Amino acid sequence: MMYKNLDQLPSYTTLKNLASHPFDLAAPWALTAHRLQSYVCSSAGFDLLYGTQRIDEQVLAALQKLADEGDAVKQFQAMKSGAVMNRIEGYECENRQVLHTATRDVFSDAPREPRASGQARRELEKLKKFLEDLDNGNIVNGKGEPFTGMVQVGIGGSDLGPRALYHALAAYRVPGRRVDFISNVDPDDAAAVLNGLDLSRTLVNVVSKSGATLETLTNEELVRQAYSDAGLDPRLHFVAVTGQGGPMDNPARYLQSFYMFDYIGGRYSATSMVGGVMLGFALGRKGFVEILGGAHEADLAAEERDIRNNISLLMALLGIWNHNFLHCETLAVLPYSQGLVRFAAHLQQCDMESNGKSINRRGESLSYQTGPIIWGEPGTNGQHAFYQLIHQGTTIIPVEFAGFRHSQYGRDIVVKETSCQEKLLANLLAQSLALATGQHDDNPNKRFAGNRPNSVLMGDRLTPRSMGALLAIYENKIAFQGFLWNINSFDQEGVQLGKKLATQLLHHFAGLRKGKSHGGGDEPGWALLQAAGLVGSRG
Amino acid sequence: MMYKNLDQLPSYTTLKNLASHPFDLAAPWALTAHRLQSYVCSSAGFDLLYGTQRIDEQVLAALQKLADEGDAVKQFQAMKSGAVMNRIEGYECENRQVLHTATRDVFSDAPREPRASGQARRELEKLKKFLEDLDNGNIVNGKGEPFTGMVQVGIGGSDLGPRALYHALAAYRVPGRRVDFISNVDPDDAAAVLNGLDLSRTLVNVVSKSGATLETLTNEELVRQAYSDAGLDPRLHFVAVTGQGGPMDNPARYLQSFYMFDYIGGRYSATSMVGGVMLGFALGRKGFVEILGGAHEADLAAEERDIRNNISLLMALLGIWNHNFLHCETLAVLPYSQGLVRFAAHLQQCDMESNGKSINRRGESLSYQTGPIIWGEPGTNGQHAFYQLIHQGTTIIPVEFAGFRHSQYGRDIVVKETSCQEKLLANLLAQSLALATGQHDDNPNKRFAGNRPNSVLMGDRLTPRSMGALLAIYENKIAFQGFLWNINSFDQEGVQLGKKLATQLLHHFAGLRKGKSHGGGDEPGWALLQAAGLVGSRG
Fold it and tell me: Could you tell me whether strands A373-375 and A330-336 are parallel, antiparallel, or unpaired per DSSP bridges?
């Protein structure tokens, strides 16, 4: 395939023209029942309500053309089939396949990429055995007691996605099991978590593909020391998820090693063993397999060419419409589900690390915006926080709402004639409407301009299966946007410069520890250490 | 005072001209030691390093003039002295004083606004007695056992600020005491929290100024029912923080009521009893008083006219420079301190609800941007998540970093010649430098444009006192920005429309519960309920 830039696709001009007079959501009778009910896209167990976006039939037709001209679905299929999508033509780069979809393409005899799905299956078999050994008392602590807790030590993709899923599915935990997370190199992170734990009954799952992530290795050492201090043998407690043959693939130090592979980026690794070991421990093997099933269903649904039947692709295109044509720089993801409390934080990585790029796949600078800034907190909490600005601020913020018809725990009461769940859903839909329609009033402080574009992703209940689907819907949305922006969504060179400069500053700290005095001079790093009052005297 | 719009101040034009060629941080030798060490502003125990902002002496001088022309400090002093700052001239509005500063102006015999500080002192006395009764065994559960836990039930300002402070200061808890929070009307929030609690040893602190907040009343009922189901008497467990004489000021239902007053907005209420009861329980009275002391110190420091000696005012002006003159729509707040894990979420409310406004204090529409979008997560975690976009994305994101020279727990180890704390600080300063300077490279994927403006707020250690100061520094920054934008930062009319529409949708749910069928028609709310699959059949 010859990849073209977004603004080289013929429909780009069509859309630019259409964007000069986008659909007016705030006009009287704009939101007809017919509109709201026909602008619903259903796949993988979710319904996307998008009648409150600033689109009409013309825009939808142009977005469909844009998707076709940009080979969005074909690129997605190529990715799933093992094409080397993680590359920049003509420049040194990672040069890798992108096969997170293979970790859930494990249910048929003919997976799209048999080698990767075969490796995923082997890891699933290892996990099955490991979890059975925990259940059967074959793996126990030094006193022969079963494990009740797990600490996941990892950062970035080894933390955010797994943590988001754990919080989302805590309602389905195996009774008596809990998981904690340590990620930050700030020593207070580990200290606070370790403070509350019975180490003797706790497994430690250390997750690092390279086996060389600074934060993770450091935190592992902190935790190992806590085990030693408590007179416990780390070998009976520590498990690794890492690259095969890497420095952490070491039976002398770990009870068991599970493998991750170079064709899965950290931010797409929640459905690999990076999420699997912890989620299998917390939810049982069946729970994790349900997640995979939901994700696989969404992966299949994402191959549909018609944007009206492909939630991921439609969300990608609506995002591009709002971002590149209506010029909104950010996107708020606002789930009306307390379980999804950390989902936006996961999406921040998955989306912004993937699509926060300025060059195309030939290394050329781009003249249009790529990935937006993603942020959000659960509703209804956010309503009492930042919604003021979304409704009446000077910046238009597109919103992706999400919600579920039923609660997880089913513990509810009726207060003032409605249940909590009904209150939650009424608020969700009311916000969608209010942002779209706005309100006239003689008091300027009670005026709402409306025309704030938004959509609502509605599922039946947040379960392992629907969580898997939701995760994949967003992963695939992000990939589709990257394909259409013609960027490499799968590397992260932008994190390297900070690492490099941090290493230089660490040399200063190490030197001071050894009693070496710094040569002085005008090096900015040293000057900043001084300015911060961390070395020598200030100014 | 006659308030002028930002663009009516003479220095606005000066700054607009200066913004056409802002200081180039990426130029060779731009970041001299002299620059980095002289662009440090110190007050209230913090140092603000701002040499990595796109400013020079000319810009600083113009910002100083802007502050003077806009009477920034005079307005702040008027606020502290009890002026009715929460109003829109000529229109129906809240018409209230703004006196959160009075809750910490309790250390001298001559507070700025004696009535409000007198009321704050009386509540502090009640709290002292209450905490002593808990310590002395005068307040115990039905079995005569002391309380070990507290659940705070509240939302928005009654949740975010107190929760952020609790997480920040968990290292200083009274041994054996813990606090949980319930906020969301999603019934799964309460269910998940209640699942893990020993109710018999737990106090419930219900916080609502009006005594009529939907989420809070509903969650209170859910929790009361859990107490009844457990055979426990809620009267021995429930405490209220609410308006005097309001519906929740009821000794028949609460062990004790603490009062909050109409001159303190929810998002500024963490240093009132809204935070005080819970933080006093968790940290002891002394801990809470330390928070007040730090905040008071910052409130005094904010009265300094010279922007080079007033961190709050300087941060406000640098924010206006980046937002109104360099046209950056968002602001990332990135604390390198795991304790501050929920601080950005608090600031989202405090800032965006305050300054997400489109009209001035005479009800006129504004032609410039007001409050930015605030978001953030702690470093170094964020480095492995969204920093890719901050470094190499197509949108410039100003950053406010924060950090502390020392960790809270002091549990640290040396790995590869440096401690975790040193690694944390090296990363913090390296990010500040990297964003500013950027990097040239032949490989376009390794190129960083630089010129990403940022500053670093550095404290000594995150303690109750420094947390109080940090909180107030930000509260005051937000107030200064509102004064200069000429907006009312203290109301939140923008949350009303969503509430109104939610009430309409709840009527539909209530009607269905009673078996009434809906009349049909083309009402958008009903149509949306149908589209979401929540009522009837979908269109």
Answer: parallel
Residue A6 CB neighbours (<10 A): 25
DSSP E strand boundaries for A94-232: 149-153, 178-182, 202-208
Cis ω before B380 (30° cut-off from 0): yes
Catalytic residue among A21, A143, A384, A500: A384
Q: What angle do CA A339, A195, A167 make, to 5 degrees?
A: 10
| CA–CA min distance A108, chain B (Å) | 32
B149 CB within 8 Å of a chain A CB: no
- Cβ-proximal residues to A351 (8 Å cutoff; 6+ apart), any chain: A371, A372, A374, A474, A478
Tell me if residue B499 is catalytic.
yes
Q: In the predicted model, is pLDDT for residue B519 greater than 60?
A: no
Averaged over B381-388, what is the pLDDT?
A: 96
Is the ipTM of this structure higher than 0.95? yes
Burial (CB < 10 A; 0-12, 13-18, 19+), residue A320, is: buried
Q: Looking at the complex, does the CB of residue B458 fall below 8 Å from at least one CB of chain A? A: yes
* Domain limits for position B510: 497-531
Domain assignment present for B105: no
Residue B539, pLDDT above cutoff 50: no
Of A242, A259, A293, the residue at which a domain comes to its end is A293
Closest CA to A382 of B290, B191, B492: B492
Q: Are A41 and B532 in contact (CB under 8 A)?
A: no
Nearest CA in chain B to A361: B445
Please state the domain count of chain B: 3
CATH code, A168: 3.40.50.10490
* Whether residue A289 is found in the same domain as residue A364: no
pTM: 0.97
CA atoms within 13 A on the CB side of B102: 27
Q: How far is A59 from chain B (nearest CA, A)?
A: 21
In a domain, A30, yes or no: no
* B408:A356 CB<8 A: no
- Show the CA angle centred on residue B97, arms to residues B95 and B100, nearest 5°: 140
Q: In what order do the strands lie in the sheet with A202-208?
A: A178-182, A149-153, A202-208, A238-243, A256-260
- Give the amino acid at A373: I
List B203's β-bridge partners, or say none.
Answer: B150
Instruction: Tell me whether the omega of the peptide bond preceding residue A380 falls within 30 degrees of 0, making it cis.
Output: yes
Q: Which of A375, A386, A495 has the CB atom closest to B388's CB atom? A: A495
Distance from C-alpha of B476 to C-alpha of B76, rounded to nearest angstrom: 8
Whether residues A174 and A189 fall in one domain: yes
CA atoms of A454 and B344, how far apart (whole Å)? 24
Q: How high is the pLDDT of residue A243?
A: 97
- In terms of domains, do B288 and B307 share one? no
Q: How far, CA to CA in Å, does B383 sit from each of A191, A213, A215, B329, B372?
A: 21, 12, 11, 21, 22
Our answer to whether residue B353 is catalytic in this structure is yes
Question: Nearest-CA residue of chain B relative to A331?
Answer: B373
Task: Examine the pLDDT at B538 and tell me if it is beyond 60.
Answer: no
Question: Do B381 and B248 share a structural domain?
Answer: no
Whether B181 is in a domain gets the answer: yes
Which candidate in B384, B416, B500, B514 is catalytic? B384
Distance of alpha carbon B529 from alpha carbon A410, whole angstroms:
21
Segment-wise mean pLDDT, segments of 10 residues, chain A, 539 residues: 94 98 96 96 98 98 98 98 97 97 96 98 98 98 98 98 98 97 97 95 96 94 96 97 96 96 98 98 98 98 98 98 98 98 98 98 98 97 97 98 97 95 98 98 97 98 98 98 98 96 95 76 88 76
